[in-house]
Specification:
Distance between the termini: 45 Å
Largest sheet: 7 strands, mixed
Order of helices and strands: HHHHEEEHEHEEHEHEE
Number of strands: 9
């Protein structure tokens, strides 16, 4: 079944109306959309071009796909994509040599991931024959729960995490929990890198969501102070406090740029940021 393509303003209004329900019921709201399969406005049918370029061009920040454990054993780095949808970015990570996990709250979405993996494997060949491909694993689970991460080696820590259309899908009231969870899942610096493709950055916060307005300063405030309540003004703009010290366990932004390539919906307004533990 193919999703209906609607104008951006119409799709956003329909998505916003679908989530006029208690926040505790939002996970089932996403599952309902995947189960129906005809309205998936976030599904672009390919990996993020900005993520493709980041993995291919920013070895100065990300290093290679291999790492040595404390005992000296060489292994592939572990990567995570929360809210992975149909799994394009997970399969992309594996093609770059990472052992990648995709997580989604919807069982149907995970089924679609497995279909994509089986049907379109030829679209994700190893980017470097000398390093080969990593593995792709798809899990159904709630990002904020510890249950799914118990099956991950290395105490559930990841050397690379990719966030795109996940942050903006969450109610702003979930942002403290979102930042705290990332601080828990991300491996120590300098090997642990959280990559955020910031979208939508120019949308007025007062228009609601999802997708909720996600300008760069929102990422800065929350990831610098994981788990803390961050103040917002009446219009929904984050109220930054430059005098406030970053919290212990907070992340710092080590790179920030506008990508040359990205999906059309974010062309000219998307930003890429990379974060590490302080």
């Amino acid at each position: 079944m193919f999703a209906t393509i609607l104008p951006q303003d119409v799709a956003r209004a329909r998505l916003r109306d679908h989530f006029t329900r208690p926040i505790s019921n939002h996970p089932e709201g996403w599952s309902e959309l995947w189960d129906a399969g005809e309205f998936l406005p976030w599904d672009r049918n390919e990996p993020s071009p900005a993520f493709v370029d980041t993995l291919g061009d920013r070895h100065d920040l990300l290093g290679t796909c291999f790492i040595e454990d404390s005992d000296g054993a060489k292994r592939r780095k572990r990567a995570l994509v929360p809210g992975c949808g149909r799994g394009y970015d997970v399969l992309l990570l594996a093609s770059f040599g990472y052992d990648a996990w995709g997580l989604d709250v919807s069982e149907t979405a995970v089924k679609r991931c497995l279909e994509e993996q089986k049907t379109n494997a030829h679209k994700y060949p190893a980017k470097d024959e000398s390093t080969g491909s990593g593995t792709s694993t798809f899990l159904t689970g709630n990002f904020f729960s510890d249950e799914w991460s118990k099956s991950i080696p290395g105490r559930g820590k990841f050397e690379l995490i990719f966030d795109y259309t996940f942050f903006c899908a969450l109610s702003p009231t979930m942002r403290p929990a979102w930042s705290l969870r990332y601080s828990q899942l991300l491996a120590p610096a300098p090997t642990g890198n959280l990559i955020c493709l910031e979208f939508p950055t120019q949308k007025p916060p007062s228009t609601g969501g999802p997708p909720h307005a996600s300008p760069p300063e929102v990422y800065v405030e929350h990831l610098s102070h994981p788990g803390e309540e961050i103040p917002y003004d009446e219009e929904g703009n984050v109220k930054g406090d430059s005098s406030k010290r970053a919290r212990s366990g907070g992340l710092e932004r080590v790179a920030h740029w506008q990508p040359e390539r990205t999906h059309a919906v974010g062309k000219g307004t998307d930003w890429v940021s990379i974060w590490r533990h302080r």
